[in-house]
Design brief:
The chain is mainly α. It contains 21 helices and no strands. The two termini are 18 Å apart. 57% of the residues are buried.
C-alpha cells in the first residue's frame, strides 16, 4: 500500500498564472451543480406529496419513495464518474466540466416540470426517476472532473487549500438550496408550497446552470501537453491497472460520505421525524450550520498543507466513531440543541471534506486521474451516502430509529482503520 501512495516527480505544469480564475471556474459551476442536486433533499416532503400516492393513514411510504428516488440518482453517479472522467482524461478537464453543467441544468428543469401523480398517475414518478438519473450522471462526472481540475491548478504546497474549495462551492450550492427552501416555506402557505412552490428552485437551477456554463468557458485547461500527445486511456484502464488504488478510494470515502450526507442533508428530516422539530426550524438550523461549515473548509485545507492529510482524516474518523451516537441521541424539540449538534458535526466533518479532493487526486496518476477517482468514489457515495436518508427513515418506520447513529459510527470507524495505515502525501508531487 505504501508503494501506491509514494509520490513521483511529474512534468505537469499547473496553470498558476490565473489561480483565482481557475478557482472561480471550478467553484461557481460546482456550486450550481450541487444547488440543483440538494434542492431535491430539502424539498423532499413536498415532492413526496405531489409525485407519490399516499399510503394508508398518512404513513412514511411517500417519503420513503422520495428518498428511494434520491438513492437511485446516486447509483448513476459511478456511471457519470466513469464516463465524464474518461472525457476529462481523453479530451480535457474543461470539456468534461462543460458537459456536466449543461446536463445538470436540463435535468433540474425536468424535475421542476414533473407532473403530479393526481394528474398523470404512475408517469409522474417515472419522470422524476428519469430526471434524478440524469442528475446523478452529471454529479458523478462533476466530482471527477472538478476534483482533478482544482488540484492540478494548485501551486506547490497549496493542494489542500485548493482542494477545500470543492466543498466550499458544494456548500455554497447547498446553502443556496437550503436558503431558498427556507424562504419559500416561510413565505408561502402549505397549499401553495404543495401545488407550485416546490418547483421554483428547480427552474432557478436551470437558469443558474447557464451562468455556470458561461463562466467555465474562460477556464484554462490543466491537462498537460504530454498527456494530450499520449495515446488516450481506455474507459476502464484506471480500474484495470490500479485496482488497489480504487479500493483505497472506497475505504477513504466510506465513513466520510455517510457522515456528510447525514449531517448536511438528512439531519433536518431526521430531527423532524425523531425529535419533533418544526420543519421551518429544522431548515433554518441547517442553513446556519452550512454557512459555518463553508467557512471552515479553507482552514482545514491550509492545516493539511502544513501538518499533513492523515491527522485531519483521523480527527474526522475517530471523532465521528465516538460521537455520532451521543450527538444524534441528544436531539430534542429545540432549535438551539439541533443547531449545536449540527455545528459540532460540521467541525469534525471538516477533517474529511476539506482535503478529500487532494487525497483522492494524490492516489492516481495523471493519465487516468479523473476516471480513476470518479468511479470508486461515486460508487462508495452511492452505496453509503445516497442511501443514508432512506436507511434512516427505514429504521424509523421499523421502530428502530436509535440504530441509525450506530450505523454511522460503525462506518466511520471502518474508514479510520484505513486512515491509520495511509501514507502521508501532502508534501510530495502529484503522480505522473
Amino acid at each position: 500500500m505504501v508503494a501506491i501512495m509514494t509520490a513521483t516527480p511529474h512534468t505537469d505544469a499547473p496553470p498558476t498564472e490565473r489561480p483565482v480564475r481557475q478557482l472561480l471556474a471550478a467553484s461557481v459551476g460546482n456550486a450550481v451543480e450541487w444547488y440543483d442536486w440538494y434542492a431535491y433533499t430539502f424539498l423532499a416532503t413536498y415532492i413526496a406529496g405531489a409525485v407519490f400516492p399516499k399510503g394508508a393513514n398518512d404513513s412514511l411510504v411517500p417519503l420513503l419513495s422520495t428518498f428511494a428516488v434520491f438513492a437511485v440518482g446516486f447509483f448513476m453517479r459511478p456511471v457519470g464518474g466513469l464516463l465524464m472522467g474518461a472525457i476529462a482524461d481523453r479530451h480535457g478537464r474543461r470539456s468534461a466540466l462543460t458537459v456536466t453543467i449543461l446536463l445538470m441544468g436540463g435535468s433540474s428543469l425536468l424535475v421542476g416540470l414533473t407532473p403530479t401523480y393526481a394528474a398523470v398517475g404512475v408517469l409522474s414518478p417515472v419522470v422524476l426517476v428519469l430526471a434524478r438519473l440524469l442528475q446523478g450522471l452529471s454529479v458523478g462526472g462533476e466530482f471527477a472532473a472538478s476534483t482533478t481540475f482544482l488540484v492540478e491548478s494548485a501551486r506547490p504546497g497549496r493542494r489542500g487549500l485548493f482542494s477545500s474549495f470543492q466543498y466550499v462551492s458544494t456548500t455554497a450550492g447547498q446553502l443556496l438550496a437550503s436558503g431558498i427552501a427556507t424562504l419559500l416555506v416561510d413565505t408561502l402557505d402549505e397549499g401553495r408550497m404543495d401545488s407550485w412552490g416546490w418547483r421554483v428552485p428547480f427552474a432557478l437551477g436551470a437558469v443558474l446552470s447557464l451562468v455556470g456554463f458561461w463562466i467555465r468557458q474562460g477556464a484554462q485547461e490543466t491537462r498537460s501537453e504530454e498527456q494530450r500527445r499520449a495515446p488516450r486511456p481506455g474507459l476502464l484502464e484506471g480500474l484495470r491497472r490500479h485496482p488497489r488504488e480504487s479500493l483505497l478510494i472506497c475505504g477513504i470515502t466510506m465513513g466520510g460520505t455517510i457522515a456528510y450526507y447525514t449531517w448536511t442533508s438528512y439531519l433536518p428530516t431526521y430531527a423532524e421525524l425523531n425529535a419533533g422539530v418544526a420543519k421551518s426550524d429544522a431548515l433554518l438550523a441547517g442553513t446556519i450550520s452550512l454557512a459555518f461549515f463553508g467557512v471552515l473548509q479553507p482552514l482545514g485545507g491550509l492545516l493539511s498543507d502544513r501538518f499533513g492529510r492523515r491527522p485531519l482524516l483521523l480527527f474526522f474518523g475517530l471523532g465521528f466513531a465516538l460521537l455520532s451516537v451521543p450527538l444524534l441521541h441528544a436531539l430534542r424539540d429545540s432549535f438551539a440543541v439541533l443547531l449545536l449538534v449540527q455545528c459540532a458535526g460540521m467541525v469534525l466533518l471538516t477533517g474529511f471534506t476539506s482535503i478529500s479532493a487532494a487525497v483522492n487526486a494524490e492516489v492516481f496518476p495523471a493519465r487516468v486521474r479523473a476516471a480513476g477517482i470518479g468511479f470508486p468514489y461515486s460508487l462508495t457515495v452511492a452505496v453509503f451516502g445516497g442511501t443514508a436518508p432512506y436507511v434512516g427513515t427505514l429504521f424509523k418506520e421499523l421502530g428502530h430509529a436509535g440504530a441509525f447513529p450506530w450505523y454511522v459510527a460503525a462506518l466511520c470507524l471502518g474508514s479510520s482503520l484505513v486512515y491509520l495505515r495511509l501514507p502521508e502525501t501532502a508534501h510530495g508531487e502529484l503522480r505522473r
